[in-house]
């Protein structure tokens, strides 16, 4: 399952002085349908990226 940390919570997530159990609380899971995968054949090919991702 994908998970995200908000911009605001990233400071907590990156603070190694805070116990791991506390830092884990800022991770927000999202449903599988939140993301879409796209296969890119050539890394760095701007035209392919635009055609497949920015369609």
Q: What's the main sheet like?
A: 2 strands, antiparallel
Structural class: mainly alpha
Helix-residue proportion: 25-40%
- Average pLDDT number: 89
How many E-type strands?
2
Main β-sheet, spatial strand arrangement: 1-2
Number of domains: 1
Give the DSSP E fraction (strand runs of 2 or more residues). Answer: 5-15%
Order of helices and strands: EHHEH
The radius of gyration over CA amounts to 16 Å
Which assembly state applies to the chains in this document? Answer: single chain
Low-pLDDT residue spans: none
Question: How many individual helices?
Answer: 3
How widely separated are the two ends?
25 Å
Tell me the overall shape. Answer: elongated
Structure description:
With 55 residues, this protein is mainly α. It has one domain (3-53). 31% of the residues lie in helices and 7% in strands. The chain is built from 3 helices and 2 strands, in the order βααβα. The chain has helices at 10-14, 20-23, 46-53; strands at residues 3-4, 28-29. The protein has a two-stranded antiparallel ribbon. The longest helix has 8 residues, at 46-53. The radius of gyration is 16 Å and the shape is elongated. The chain starts with a strand and ends with a helix. The model has no long low-confidence stretch (mean pLDDT 89).
Q: What's a quick, concise take on this entry?
A:
With 55 residues, this protein is mostly helical.
